[in-house]
Automatic annotation (TrEMBL):
<protein>
    <submittedName>
        <fullName>Uncharacterized protein</fullName>
    </submittedName>
</protein>
<dbReference type="InterPro" id="IPR036748">
    <property type="entry name" value="MTH938-like_sf"/>
</dbReference>
<dbReference type="Pfam" id="PF04430">
    <property type="entry name" value="DUF498"/>
</dbReference>
<dbReference type="InterPro" id="IPR007523">
    <property type="entry name" value="NDUFAF3/AAMDC"/>
</dbReference>
Length: 99
């Protein structure tokens, strides 16, 4: 399986995500994630090649639905997602494309 562009990896499947930069991630951009909050304990936010810290509003929005938020480069987020998923953890990923 192959995907291009930014992605949301959720318990219900993998979806294209129309976000191209870390500073464009908002609660509205994560609406699909929040709709599945009951099945997600941790959200890994891959912010591209570098690290962009999520806004305070985004951190509070995740906290309000009991989802832990971890930001890191997209490569690190993919590796971490695969490990946690393999352990059977309730994890999701929002991955900004690096190209």
């Amino acid at each position: 399986m192959s995907h291009r562009g930014s992605l949301l990896c959720l318990p219900s499947g993998i979806y294209g995500w129309d976000v191209r930069a870390g500073d464009a991630v908002s609660a509205a951009a994560l609406e699909r994630v929040f709709a599945e909050a009951g099945e997600i304990d941790q959200l890994l936010l891959g912010t591209g090649r570098g690290l962009d810290f999520p806004s305070e509003a985004l951190r509070f929005a995740c906290r309000d639905v009991a989802i832990g938020l971890e930001a890191m480069s997209t490569g690190a987020a993919i590796r971490t997602y695969n490990i946690l998923l393999g352990e059977g953890r309730r994890v999701a990923a929002a991955l900004i494309a690096t190209e």
